[in-house]
C-alpha cells in the first residue's frame, strides 16, 4: 500500500487483509508497539517518529526481514508503510527474492493534500500535530513519492481514488486486484 500520511492506507490495509486472508504488516504500527513496550528498537525510533522523520533504511530492513520470515506471512501478506524510500524498495526486492516471492501489485491511494492535513489532524495520534503532519507530508513527497514512478515502470502500480467512503475505497481496490468482495 502506497499513499501519503492520512490517505487511509492503514485502515484499508486492515480491511483488505481481512478480505484476502493475509496479515497486514504495518511498519508504523510495529514501531509504535515497540515504543509502547519500551524495547531497544522503541528507544531508537521514538524521537525520530515524533519529529515526522523516517527511521533509517538499515534498521527498517532488519524489522521487515524478520517480520516477513514469520510463518503467518508464508501464504502472502500486505505491506503498509514499507517501502518508503527507493533504498527500501531495493532492499525489499532482495528480501522477496530470498523468500522466493514477488509483489503482485502496488496500490496507490490518491487523496488531495488539503484533505490529508484535515484527516491527519483529526486523528490525534502523537505524531499528528499540524506541524509534524506537514513535515511527514514533506518527507512523503521527497522520499516516498519517487516510488510511484518506480512501480509504475514495473507495471505494478494500481491508482485508486482515496477520497471516497471507506467501503467504497475497499471495493475499488478489490475490484482493481481482481478479487471478489
Ligand atoms: P505510519 O504509521 O506508516 O505513518 O508510520 C509512522 C512513523 O513511523 C513514520 O512517520 C516514520 O517515522 C516511521 N516509519 C514507519 N514506516 C517506516 C519506514 N518504512 N521507513 C522509515 N520510517 C518508517
Cofactors and ligands: adenosine monophosphate
Low-confidence stretches: none
Q: Percent of residues in beta strands?
A: 5-15%
Q: What is the end-to-end distance?
A: 18 Å
Radius of gyration: 16 Å
Average pLDDT rating: 95
Q: Please write the string of helix (H) and strand (E) elements.
A: EHEHHHEHEHHHEH
State the major sheet: 3 strands, parallel
Structural class: mainly alpha
What is the number of E strands? 5
Helix count from the secondary structure assignment: 9
Q: Give the overall silhouette.
A: globular
Going across the biggest sheet, name each strand in turn. Answer: 1-4-5
Helix share bin? 55-70%
SSE arrangement:
Elements: E1 2-3, H1 9-20, E2 24-26, H2 27-37, H3 40-51, H4 57-68, E3 78-80, H5 86-99, E4 106-110, H6 113-123, H7 130-144, H8 146-153, E5 157-161, H9 166-176
Parallel strand pairs: 1-4, 2-3, 4-5
Helix pairs in contact: 1-9, 2-3, 4-5, 6-7
The structure holds adenosine monophosphate.
The site of adenosine monophosphate has 17 residues, from α2 and α3.
Walk me through what this model shows.
With 181 residues, the protein is mainly alpha-helical. Helices cover 59% and strands 10% of the residues. The protein has nine helices and five strands, in the order βαβαααβαβαααβα. It has helices at residues 9-20, 27-37, 40-51, 57-68, 86-99, 113-123, 130-144, 146-153, 166-176; strands at 2-3, 24-26, 78-80, 106-110, 157-161. The strands form two sheets. A three-stranded parallel beta sheet has the order 1-4-5. It has a two-stranded parallel sheet with strand order 2-3. It is globular and about 40 Å long. The two termini are 18 Å apart. The structure holds adenosine monophosphate.
